[in-house]
Amino acid sequence: MLEAKYQKFHDQISTKISPENIFTDKLHTLAYGTDASFYRLIPKIVIKTDNASEVQTIIELANEMELSITFRAAGTSLSGQAISDSILIITSRKFSNFRISDDKSEISLEPALTGAQTNNLLAPYGKKIGPDPASINAAMIGGIAANNASGMCCGISQNSYKTLKSMKLIFSDGAKLDTGCENSKKEFRLTHKDFLSDLKQIASETVNDEELRAKIERKFKIKNTCGYSLNSLIDFDDEFDILQHLIIGSEGTLAFIEEITYYTVEDLKDKASALMYFKDVKEACNAVTKLKLAKEAGKITVDAVELMDRAGLASIENDPAMPDFIKSFDKNVTALLVETRAKDQNALDTQISQLEELLEEFNVVRDIYFTKDIAEYTLYWKIRKGLFPAVGAVREVGTTVIIEDVAYPIEVLAEATLELQELFKKHDYSEALIFGHALEGNFHFVFTQDFSIESEVKRYDEFMNDVVNSVAVKYQGSLKAEHGTGRNMAAFIEVEWGKTAYAMMQRIKCLFDPKGLLNPGVIINDDAEAHLKNLKAMPATNEIVDKCIECGFCEPTCPSNDITLTPRQRIVINREISRLERAGEFDEAKEYRDLYQYDGIETCATCSLCSSACPVKIDTGSLTKHLRAEQNSSSAKGVANFVAKNFSTTLSGVRFGLGGANIAHKLLGTGSMESVADTVRSWTNGSTAKWTPAMPKAINISTKFEQKVSDKKVVYFPSCINRSMGLSSMSKEEKQLFEVTVELLQKAGYQIVFPENLGDLCCGMPFSSKGFNEASKRKSTQLEKALLEASEFGAYPILCDTSPCTKKMMEAFASDMDIYEPIEFAMEYLSKDLDFEQINEPITIHTTCSSRKMGLDDKFRQLASMCSSNVIIPADVKCCGFAGDRGFNFPELNKSALRNLKTQTSGAKMAFSTSKTCEIGLSAESGLDYNSIFYLINQVTSPKNS
Questions:
Q1: Choosing a second label site near 469 at 20 to 30 A (CA), which of 475, 549, 818, 854?
Q2: How many whole angstroms separate alpha carbon 75 and alpha carbon 31?
């Protein structure tokens, strides 16, 4: 039950914004209220906004009713700046329009685009945005700008502050301003004359205070996001330049960023990276100092230098991509990951030589080696970007991982870092480690903390006070370099900046937000113990996901991220259910379970793409399968086992149902059929399957056909889907996939072998995805035996025409057999057996989740390019959301996952994938006729030497 004032707000806002986007229930307020920090507040109301008009409406009403609001984009921030116990405004993924200038020198972005999406938009023009946080794949533009998030390469020269052109803003009173529009500025001068006058006065006082001005100049020579961007007061004369640069790094406490226009920067493609190993942290830091000074003097070109101490290396040394020799290093070895970029290869070679010569004097434990191999250095940087979550994963279950973010003047880097390590020892944080952007003197240190014990909280407080005095007082560094002040460092701003500067920040906050309604408690906070309050617990729930630190890196890959919950949010809810049950609060736990059923279980595609984005490979899809298995009753398991034992009969039933639907379609026509099917779904509360024109027709296949005897044999296992589901009524193809595959294999000179009792065979995936593990095991064991016999115990390669089934077989089988899905079989065998003649017609491809997890994404691109000179790959489409047969019963998941598909494939004439059920959903949402890639290969190939 909402408090009266919030209920009144809710009632009014529900008349102006779709109630579907307004949440007050306990599941959604907890799930959506969680960010990546180690703080927790639970909002009273969560509102997902699709556009600036909605945000303005909310701000105006909140201002009128004097209710505080907090803005949230991706929720990857780490300092507690994106949480609220009042009204949380989330920018939905629809809030993502953009414009690129004709000369590509500028890009205008709404707040919900991720940094990675933005760079994908700019990549064809050799451009990117300046900020490059490690969370760039998940972090959204609104948060990147509001936190002045930087990263590994941008330093202080290409961050949001330095590359900002203009902004569209919404202020605490609902007023709007476009700093790139003269008419908007003219109107703002009339309506906010006193505001601008006061802002100019603050800037004038700052400029005329020599001591304060000098301090600002000194402190912003290194990264600094502690407090407001006071440098704007001395860097600019124009009041609108001052205003918009104050917004950078203001963490939603001054205004809402409706749109930001960045100056783009050049994205040099010729790169080389080296992972260097120094004898200890002091030697590594001294090398960094020399690199930095040489760069400033123009003697070398170095774009990034990342430090990882021995503890950091230990956390990733078991990654398959890391060299084995790291495990033999002593406890002091420290690594630097160095990158240099150039306009061409000759310049790159020169830069590498200069760097190697500069570093000759230092004591390294392995020879320095720069790699130009894209795959190799990309892997190094991926591992570095995932270091924080990877470290968090090795913590003791139930503890919280804490990351701090400081910067030192480069001249004292070695001395300050050694002192930081001594503080770890003093306060008994033996597991603590250091890594970060060493070239900028910016280090992150990570340690684990149990906030459930009062003595542990006291230890944390004493440690942080020592850190504050060391960083901010002794070494005149930054307590927050790029993660934002948040709640974490709000109590210490005055220690770092002094009374005069802090008073100036308080005046700025009061000027922009006189009622104190925008993100209260963040940056400006009078509570000296704010950093010790509202600490987030990480209770154990299931070993599948207990390593999760709730960073949110998984969220962009999840097909349900714009409709229900993300993997992070599913884990949050499961943790809360487990906590409640351990506390004996079973009724409340049941409330969560009931609310979780649709959002958490039914609309999870179990695609497991979250594990590919997670630095520690947490698979929330496996958790969902586990929960489904727990829910399956003994009678349901009995039915599943009966189906498994009588599988060919089940397929006959599938064919009968599809045949009936096809007859009805012919009689009624497409429009009437859709209407009737939707009406029936409505009557049955969605328990009947969704019908679309992409629905396949029923088919039977026959393996009895004439073949030439050949020593070149392949075992072909047509999946049960492709043995029962054929082309749709909208397809222009004439042959079924089975016929095309047979034709293709025979063209390539193969004699085809089929397993015995084919009609009864299945990989087991339809059962395992629903948690029927016994039935799944029965089918996979039966299939393994049949394929062993057909392949003469692994003598012949085995082809399955469906990628998800192939992956299931690889995971389930114990026998040594070479099993291929269409992409890899084509690249491994057909590319050698057939001549490919590239066509010019534009095509699009969809890489299934299974293919991605098998590492076949790049191979599919290569294969498609062998077939067509014009391959379109939609950048924002990952999992299609059809999830086997789930798309029939929960079509909204498929629709949401593919919301960008039609736009991003608009130029394609043909479309291809490697899974029939995926192709059904892809066809329905794009209007294209998606079919197996074997159709295209068969079209563009001929026998060798024909």
A1: 549
A2: 11
For the purposes of burial, counting CB atoms within 10 Å of the CB of 594, is it exposed (0-12), middle (13-18) or buried (19 or more)? exposed
Q: Which residue in the block uniquely carries the two structure tokens 């920090």? A: 37
Q: Could you give the count of Cα atoms lying within 13 Å of 588 in the half-sphere of its Cβ?
A: 14
Burial class (CB in 10 A: 0-12, 13-18, 19+), 711: exposed
Under DSSP, the state recorded for 695 is P
How far apart CA 518 and CA 526 sit, in angstroms, is 16
C-alpha–C-alpha distance, residues 95 and 21, integer Å: 13
pLDDT band at 24 (very low <50, low <70, confident <90, very high): very high
Rounded CA separation 493/483 (Å): 14
pLDDT mean over 61-86: 97
Nearest-angstrom CA–CA distance, 552 and 557: 10
> What would the two tokens of residue 237 be?
């004369």
pLDDT digits (tens, 9 = 90+) for 225-249: 999 999 999 999 999 999 999 999 9
372 and 348 Cβ atoms separated by less than 8 Å: yes
Asked whether 184 and 177 are in contact (CB, 8 A), the reply is yes
**Which structure tokens are listed for 856?**
């076949």
Look at the block and give the residue holding tokens 């799930």.
31
Calculate the alpha carbon distances from 318 to 313, 372, 484, 551 in Å.
9, 24, 32, 21
Interatomic CA distance for residues 179 and 182, integer angstroms: 7
Strand-pair partners of 340: 272
Please, are residues 766 and 724 in contact by the beta-carbon 8 Å criterion?
no
Collect all residues with Cβ–Cβ distance below 8 Å to 186 and sequence separation of at least 6. none
Tokens describing residue 295? 């760069």
The pTM is what? 0.93
Q: How far apart are CA 798 and CA 899, in angstroms?
A: 36
Distance (Å, whole) CA 897 – CA 178: 33
Q: Which of 855, 640, 619 is nearest to 768 (CA)?
A: 640
Which is nearest to 291 in space by CA: 344, 345, 347, 337? 337
* Beta partners for residue 480, in sequence order: 405
Query: Which amino acid does the sequence have at 533?
Result: K
Report the Cα–Cα distance between both ends of the chain, in Å, rounded: 77
Neighbours of 307 (CB within 10 A): 27
Instruction: Quote the tokens at residue 741.
Output: 């595959």
195: tokens are 């505001």
> What's the CA gap between 383 and 395, in Å, rounded?
18
- Six-digit token string for 346: 């000759």
Q: 659 pLDDT exceeds 70?
A: no
Q: What are residue 884's phi and psi, to 5 degrees?
A: 70, -115
Give the bridge partners for 447, in sequence order: 402
H/E element, 457 = helix 454-468
Cα separation, 573 vs 862, whole angstroms: 41
CB 288 within 8 A of CB 336: yes
**pLDDT for residue 661 is more than 60:** no
- 3-state class (DSSP) for residue 473: helix
Measure the CA–CA gap between 333 and 364, rounded to whole angstroms: 9
Considering the chain, what is the average pLDDT of its residues?
93
Cβ contacts of 181 within 8 Å, gap of 6 or more: none
Cβ atoms of residues 748 and 826 within 8 Å: no
DSSP designation for 689: P
pLDDT band per the 50, 70, 90 thresholds, residue 315: confident
